[in-house]
Give the backbone structure.
Amino acid sequence: MNTKLSHTDIKQLLSDHGLKSTSQRIVIYGVLNSLATHPTTEEVYSCIRDEHPSISLATVYKTLETFVSVGICRKVMSKSGTMRYDRNVSDHGHIYCENTEEIIDYEDSELDALLADYFSRKKISNLKIKEIKIQINGDKIDLRKKIQVL
Amino acid sequence: MNTKLSHTDIKQLLSDHGLKSTSQRIVIYGVLNSLATHPTTEEVYSCIRDEHPSISLATVYKTLETFVSVGICRKVMSKSGTMRYDRNVSDHGHIYCENTEEIIDYEDSELDALLADYFSRKKISNLKIKEIKIQINGDKIDLRKKIQVL
DNA sequence: GTGCTTGCAAACCGTTTGCAAGGAT
DNA sequence: ATCCTTGCAAACGGTTTGCAAGCAC
């Protein structure tokens, strides 16, 4: 799922999406891809700062936005209203842990099928549906344990 | 659904929820209740300003937050990250129109039943589910026509 | 060489806060 | 009389912007 990508892989990915491969973009994409979480811009920035102190926060903002615009990552909104980035571009829902603030991916083909079937029957007139997302809000019971999807 | 409430009705509602009925709260709740949309704080404020210029923006912020905390309205996040308020406290999903920025309520008991059934079978371990929300993103086809739910 | 990308600092905007005055119970 | 609520203005935090220098192509 989050395979570690080489420099060359990332260069390829960027140019495949019509982006110049600058060193900043390569570093930023590398970090985003390596994180299992849904980091904020600041979080990405602080992961980078030690090794690449010359990359500015503004560049991280702009770069992540560029990635979203070409479709190599997504933007998710946290409950508090700050944006978080998600390297998982496939269609999926999110679990919002209210006590830990975590956002966890939720993917299940059965659910997808269920919703696709439901919405093919129920029509919402005058609307072209582009995306259907599930948001599950809850509390993590044992704070030390990972949430297991499925 | 959004019956017009009298002054006295609102006073009653406020005290039922343990809130002092100040004139500001009555005005703000009245506006929120009368709007069919999901207004931002600024929108509520500008609806009020003409008739009640002495009510400050900060009060509108604080008051709406108070309403959420006692459960007489809800907070929804718009795509851009600004908060919007929803007088509909019953469990329901939202339709996000990407071309008009509108947020429209979506309620259907069949969908609720479908999801309840699905999640009673699928277990997410280590999570206590508190709420499941559906978000439908799409484009309004005819900008002049209202979206009809169902 | 050209046009996109970067770094910097300042501006921005929605929201929150501290505090003193005012008001509901 | 008490404690909550309000208005004001200042602060805040995340994000965006304008611009000059730098870099990929």
The longest helix of chain A spans residues 57-70. Residues 20, 22, 24-25, 54-59, 62-63, 66, 81 of chain A lie near DNA strand C (CB under 10 Å from a C1'). Residues 93-138 of chain A form a domain with the Dna Ligase; domain 1 fold (CATH 3.30.1490).
